[in-house]
């Protein structure tokens, strides 16, 4: 893949991060770096769902508003939201006021609590879907793993999370390194993934 975007520092980046100024810090510091914090994983799950049919720039610009509106995506708190919270969120101009997506976020918080009870953590579940073989960077929008992940989440009652959304989530959370070959951030992301201790590799606490 030929990369045409040269950042202000003179180094090449993934083409997409040249689309808006706010993309560059997100690309350089977050996208593709492995995450195992459950609250961060849930935040990204929600934001990817809210993005459906919209641009990531819209969501990124509203991210702090989303965090304030959803208690920084503490899914234990969001799971307790009722109709009064839905009405509050529908009046919040700082977020995406889409009833279906708001209700899906609340539903998914409830499902996240169940997943932690069943799997130990969200990270333990999601990192099982880390791809074994990587294709050429940024040449696909789904993968066998993202299709399997979306299917399993649907089975567990999650909403607004199809294979394309699942793949975008996996790219962002570092389950794969999809930075372009020429991108200066590809190597730091690779190193971060090499050093990352996956949930399946951690020792279980002794009794």
Automatic annotation (TrEMBL):
Highest taxon of the lineage: Bacteria
MF GO annotations: DNA-3-methyladenine glycosylase activity
SUPFAM superfamilies from the UniProt entry: DNA-glycosylase
Enzyme class: hydrolase
Enzyme Commission no: 3.2.2.20
InterPro entries cross-referenced by the UniProt entry: Adenine_glyco, DNA-3mA_glycosylase, DNA_glycosylase
Keyword terms of this UniProt record: Glycosidase, Hydrolase
Official protein name in the record: DNA-3-methyladenine glycosylase I
Organism per entry: Vreelandella neptunia
